[in-house]
Specification:
Oligomer: single chain
Helix content: 55-70%
Number of domains: 1
Distance between the termini: 47 Å
Largest sheet: none
Number of helices: 3
Structural class: mainly alpha
């Protein structure tokens, strides 16, 4: 907004996001059966539904600075958000829903 960044994440915040993305990847791998989940199958199913929700919310955004219905346009981030990040989040949400609603 006016050439200023709206979010300045700290290195710790960046590491937390990286850890959560890795945990999400492990959750999805367990959900599709790449490894035995034993009695925790329900936990992986719940985790994939949570991933569905998180990625769907990210795709729709906060209606101001990011997401499909953002009002801020004309920035480099807005361009990439419209053409890459939001569609990717929609795809990830759909894949998580497929995995969560899949096999028993």
């Amino acid at each position: 907004m006016n050439g200023r960044r709206t979010l300045n994440p700290s290195p710790l915040a960046t590491y937390v996001v990286a850890f959560l993305l890795a945990a999400g990847a492990v959750t999805m791998c367990g959900g599709v059966g790449l490894f035995q989940t034993g009695p925790l199958t329900w936990l992986f199913r719940l985790g994939t539904w949570c991933l569905f929700g998180v990625f769907l919310l990210r795709a729709f955004g906060n209606l101001k600075t990011f997401g499909l219905f953002k009002s801020v346009q004309g920035t480099q981030f807005a361009y990439w958000d419209t053409h890459l990040y939001s569609p990717l989040c929609l795809l990830l949400a759909a894949l998580a829903a497929v995995v969560a609603g899949g096999r028993d």
